[in-house]
């Protein structure tokens, strides 16, 4: 049985023996008549999945229970052609992985497009893995091809989970936004009715003083909300500040940062995997 640990990069050694069944060395002895040139390979002979490498031949005498027999042996080396598997398996699976990264550049609100890309690439990788394993011998150990396809499947599935993570962070963000909007409104009314700073605001207004500068101070922003012209803009600025602070303190990362990290992390990991994979198996 062939060993498929390094399937796609493996070498096979086959032996062809010539021996008499009925005549021992007392009756017949075989020799290679032309020495090293006794066995030649026709240059027009090609195999679909293998390349014939070096070959050598020897003369031996085999001892059996019925006597000694002369044997001529030829050893052939076959190397599997990787080109077929590059075109049919390695290139398509790598392309599927790259396609799954398109979702990292789509808008976070494009739910249908991002989910469609993620699910489609996962199903395509599943089909490719199933069809590939169906055409190979059934073995109980992990093949080199399984490692490559398994890694590609992991990356594609992780790309789908990446958007699920963004969805979770966005939901937390919206909840924080609602909670902080209520807090901001409460602070506005408390400052309007109870804060002594209101008298100074009115005094400045009597002197035709105009407040045009926005502030990130929790006390100054609600006071400037008294101007209806800037009310929505200033309140939104305070809410965004409070929501971002809450989100960063709880999760240490914002939804927008997940895509930015993924755009660098996923390609870097896949390129590093390719370098290690091909280095190990090409020089195994």
UniProtKB/TrEMBL annotation:
Transmembrane segments: 82-106, 113-135, 147-170, 264-283
Signal peptide: 1-22
Keywords: Cell membrane, Chloride, Chloride channel, Disulfide bond, Glycoprotein, Ion channel, Ion transport, Membrane, Postsynaptic cell membrane, Signal, Synapse, Transmembrane, Transmembrane helix, Transport
InterPro entries named in the record: GABAA/Glycine_rcpt, Neur_chan_lig-bd_sf, Neur_channel, Neuro-gated_channel_TM_sf, Neuro_actylchol_rec, Neurotrans-gated_channel_TM
Gene Ontology CC annotation, any one: postsynaptic membrane
Compartment list: Postsynaptic cell membrane
Residue ranges annotated for the Neurotransmitter-gated ion-channel transmembrane domain, each copy included: 89-176
GO terms of molecular function: chloride channel activity; extracellular ligand-gated monoatomic ion channel activity; transmembrane signaling receptor activity
Keyword Oxidoreductase attached: no
Membrane association type: Multi-pass membrane protein
Principal subcellular localisation of the protein: membrane
Identification of the protein by name: BMA-LGC-38
Organismal lineage: Eukaryota, Metazoa, Ecdysozoa, Nematoda, Chromadorea
